[in-house]
Design brief:
581 residues; six-stranded antiparallel sheet; single chain; alpha+beta
């Protein structure tokens, strides 16, 4: 996806009294593998003649002259302000043509220039050339960047005629170059280190003299490398843009923007924000006029805090914290995780690099002296909870290095977290639904910890994972509390109504469980019935229903004959940890 998401070139065209003009394009030189460079190379008679196809894939717009590009990319005025997309063979041009309106009332009266001429430019278009097979999301993103640059240029043109000045400078250089003879052009534009056959493009001479040309070149280079574009047009207005296809990747494979958008829409207050870089370097990258709320979130966030606690500590609205968290995730500065606690179960990611001498292993050894990455990763070969690393006799200070190592491995996508899901699955009628005597208790299957004695959360978290009793926004509609009196007729009718969505065989199987004879247990099970479809993990049920972990695990154990308990990733979090199929 790296090559297909990179643009082939960036082009600036204009239309005005002098006709359609191609002001700038980059890259403006053919590569060394172009047909012109290969005409003198001897080739084997048995070689496949595929040079033309390869060149077109690498530099598809190089066969179009400047005049042709100016003609097809400088649109009519009726098409301005709309998305421009044109496909020719294996090249797709994407832009946002913008109309320049120079009414007398729009010219600033405070302009100090004594001679302010009415500009002759009618419209302009910043176009990105892509491969025809580019993903539609890439096309949409680059159109967005073209639109942002166009809005800024239009603003600066109305403020101080910035675009007109830059266009005059470019056209003057082009006229000067075209007036030279071919020999003079080679002497002007060629240095001994860059000498090639034939004259150089005039755009090479435009770059050091034109700020707008350098900005477009910088945008192109950034899109091809990091995917993050930061421009200051006319050294005044900032244009910030990120191409998610370049930023979000796991094991050198990109994460689809649609998957990121779905995950951001599914963020819940019980999730946590994990910064991928340290606080100091992240704050240094922020612009000077960034939101103070964003700075507060970065300074307050922690891997052991959920978003609701983060909103309280940062003194911000929960919705605003959601928006700031989504902003950091979209820009590749953070990911969404579940808050660290001793009940979290982790295992080695299938995409993790386990080489002994990998760069990650060296970074880990520098970050944590006395520990090596392969040995630590070997402990997570099978699913393991953090509670198993805890020494009950050790002071809490000794647990800090473990937390830091787990956070580091999560930042580098080396671990994935598994969550507990319950699914209602009654046995067929032919089988005996009575529990077998030799069946392993549910408590033993979860690691041998007693369900009656909840584990207190350490790791410096202000909230215990077992005692997690957050207030859900939907608590009023969740029927969390029924009428008092465990065996009242009203409660019986409500329990029966909750079971009406099941088939007769499922109701009989549930009522045949010994725990169903306890009205309170049956009522809680019926209330949670819609969670037992394999789509809601344990922590989500705890948050929505304001229940303790030990209470839920005990309920799972009592109804284990009709419940199948599985462990797998949370789809909201897994998009940042493993490859999408």
């Amino acid at each position: 996806m790296g090559e297909s998401s990179s643009p082939i070139s960036v082009i600036l065209v204009s239309s005005g009294s002098r006709g359609n003009k191609l002001l700038f394009r980059f890259p403006f030189q053919r590569g060394p593998e172009s047909p012109a460079a290969q005409t003198g190379k001897p080739r084997s008679r048995y070689a496949v003649n595929s040079i033309g196809d390869i060149v077109e894939d690498q530099d598809g717009d190089s066969r179009f002259s400047d005049v042709i590009l100016a003609t097809i990319l400088a649109t009519k005025s009726e098409m301005c302000g709309k998305k421009f997309e044109l496909k020719i063979d294996n090249v797709r041009f994407v832009g946002h043509p913008t109309l320049l309106q120079h009414a007398s009332g729009q010219i600033s009266k405070t302009d100090p220039s004594p001679k302010r001429e009415v500009p002759t430019m009618i419209l302009f278009n910043v176009v990105f050339a892509l491969r025809a097979t580019a993903d539609p999301s890439v096309i949409s993103c680059l159109h967005n960047l073209s639109r942002r640059i166009a809005i800024v240029l239009q603003h600066e043109e109305r403020r101080c005629q910035y675009l007109t000045r830059e266009a005059k400078l470019i056209l003057a250089i082009q006229d000067e170059v075209s007036a030279m003879s071919e020999s003079d052009r080679c002497k002007v534009f060629l240095s001994p280190s860059t000498a090639t056959d034939g004259p150089q493009s005039p755009f090479l001479h435009i770059l050091p003299k034109c700020k707008l040309a350098r900005d477009l070149k910088e945008a192109y280079d950034s899109l091809c490398t990091t995917g993050v574009v930061r421009l200051h047009i006319n050294r005044w207005l900032e244009v910030s843009f990120c191409l998610p296809h370049k930023i979000h990747n796991v094991a050198s494979r990109f994460i689809p923007p649609e998957a990121i958008e779905r995950s951001l829409k599914a963020i819940r207050p019980y999730h946590s924000l994990l910064l991928l870089r340290d606080e100091k370097s992240l704050l240094a990258e922020l612009p000077l006029d960034c939101s103070p709320a964003l700075v507060r979130v970065i300074r307050t966030t922690s891997a052991v805090k959920n978003l609701q606690q983060l909103a309280q500590d940062a003194d911000l609205a929960l919705l605003q914290v959601f928006q700031l968290a989504a902003h950091l995730v979209y820009w590749g500065k953070a990911i969404i995780i579940y808050p660290l606690c001793e009940n979290n179960v982790y295992m080695l990611s299938p995409n993790a690099s386990v080489c002994l001498y990998s760069p990650l292993a060296d970074d880990f050894s520098c970050q944590f002296p006395g520990h090596d990455l392969p040995s630590i990763l070997s402990k997570f070969s099978l699913p393991v909870s953090l509670a198993e690393f805890k020494n009950p006799l050790a002071p809490p200070v000794q647990e800090t290095p473990l937390i830091q190592m787990v956070v580091w491995m999560l930042q580098h996508r080396l671990l994935i977290q598994l969550h507990t899901y319950a699914c209602l699955m009654v046995p067929p009628k032919e089988e005996d639904v009575r529990p077998k005597a030799e069946e392993v208790p549910f408590t033993a299957r979860l690691g041998g910890r007693s369900l009656s004695t909840p584990n207190a959360l350490s790791f410096g978290s202000p909230t215990s994972s077992d005692d997690l009793t957050l207030t859900s926004p939907s608590m009023e509609n969740s029927s969390a509390e029924l009428l008092p009196g465990g065996d009242s007729p009203v409660n019986k009718r409500m329990t029966e109504n909750m079971l009406t969505s099941l088939s007769e065989h499922e109701r009989e199987a549930i009522l045949s469980v010994s725990a169903a004879h306890n009205p309170e247990d049956l009522r809680v099970f019926a209330r949670l019935l819609h969670y037992f479809r394999g789509h809601h993990h344990l922590e989500e049920i705890m948050y929505n229903e304001n229940m303790r972990r030990s209470h839920l695990l005990m309920l799972f154990d009592k109804f284990r004959s009709v419940l199948v308990v599985t462990n797998h990733e949370d789809p909201v979090i897994s998009v940042f940890q493993s490859l999408q199929k």
